[in-house]
Amino acid sequence: IEFELDMEITADARVEDVIINYEAEVEEEVEEIFTIVEDQPTPIGGMSTFYQYIGKNIRYPQAARRLNVSGLVFLSFVVEKDGTLTDVKVVKGIGAGCDLEAVRVLNSAPDWSPGKQRGRAVRVYMTVPIRFILAGGD
Question: What's the predicted TM-score (pTM) here?
Fold first, then answer.
């Protein structure tokens, strides 16, 4: 808003209607994805239930068996406001099909309890490790 205050006023001066034209600032709701929140997202039933689900549903890839590949696959994902898991990505993998299998299982995992910031559900980045270990007789 600009005002020009350097003007001459006389008895004959007429005041015109002052119209201030401004656009109301609309606060755009940004879908921020948090990394740290007051209440972290958790799998329904807890992490032990989550890892039991992973253990029951993961299939050791044949290529990894043949090559004797084992180790940790780290996955990042977003827990949405409704608890669904999206944007699953491999942060650090071990290859031989293990990375793809870990992503497949996490994409089909049950919903989580969403993270909360100031009492409302928010989107939160999470990272979990999934361990691939070949059993001795396998």
Answer: 0.72
